[in-house]
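Working notes for the structural subgroup meeting. M.R. asked for a predicted model of this chain before we commit to crystallization trials. I am recording the input and output together here so anyone reviewing the notebook later can reproduce the run.

Input as submitted:
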Amino acid sequence: MPYPTLPSSIREILLEVLSTLPLQLCIDCWGTEQLSSTSTNNHLSKFTLQIHHPGVIRILILTQDILVLGEAYLQGFVDFSGDINDLLRLGNISYSHIKRSKLIKSWTEALTLPQLSVSLQENSPWQKLKFGTKERDQAVIQHHYDVGNDFYRLWLDPLLIYSCAYFESEQMSLKEAQEAKLDRICRKLRLKSGEYLLDIGCGWGALLRWAISHYGVKGYGITLSKEQLDFNQKIIQKEGLGEQMQVELLDYRDLPKQPTFDKIVSIGMVEHVGVNNYPIYFQNTLSALKPGGLFLNHGMTAMEQSDGSSLNDRFIARYIFPDGKLSNLSTNLGAAEETGWEIVDVETWRSHYGKTFRCWAANLEVAMEQAIALIGEPKARLWRLYLTGFAQSFEQNYLAVYQMLLRRQADKEWNLPLTRKDWLC
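Returned structure, recorded in token form:
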């Protein structure tokens, strides 16, 4: 049975809303008609939204919540073409300029459209846990990372590195760029044989194993992901690394309170800490570092502080990084300095992360059928959207990523080379 055409009052409202949007948007209504914005500004981005079921419009009109489009996309009722960030940057749809009588009529007509089960109710298990606690943080981390190691193998490099690669040339493969990243970090930290290295949020252990095999250190990694812990323990046993490498399920707030490590590294973990916990994060790492040591903190930042109301922020908070909120670089640097860290060096890797996400997105696209078989179509579509959207965000300077090299302010005597030559070469 064919779906009904769009009711007249809903069509009028959608056209009015389209006229206010800062992009050239075309809405394809389940193949029966297309609605387009009237803007003739060729500088505005073009975007097509394909709605496959009228129930999407029903819920969108009744709830007036643009997040409906995100949920409908995951369930396969919406597709798109164009720059997804143009859509994600929109906030909630404003109906303030539309007459109330017309709105009421549209609500009545929306009820005549077929129903669709698209829920915006948040029922995730971590919602019942107190914000910012260890228990909630662990639940949130496991939501993002514990989708199965086999899924990550589909699109990551062979070492399973889920953080920004470093492309020394345009021709570098993802594998080569990830290995270049690992070695650059080790050189920045000036690792020496016999030193004790802490990796906070160690993932699948690639950096620790690289530092052990190439620089002769002993490594200790912590993670909140049970899947990553199991993976690391199997690798340690398989490769006979029991004397050199240890990985535990541990929160950064439970790190030793006395100087224990010669060097500390944190790659792509600070995004999960949250601004309110920065003082604890930087204080605990400071307490755990031996005098004369170095701490390399690598993390994403936002170019502008957000109030969390845009579709992009709400979509990421609900589906990608629950509880995560990116700050800008100055906030990170200020929090580090106020805790007792001296800023030794800051380096931007924004262009590298755009390329990294592009590689990941391309790999996932090739393996999409396998991804669907492993985690189901809704989650696979979510990851496709996430990887593509983040690539565009880094390319367009909405997101950035920085490496901060830190030393203790208490270390008065300078113990580093005068230049960067030793890790730039």
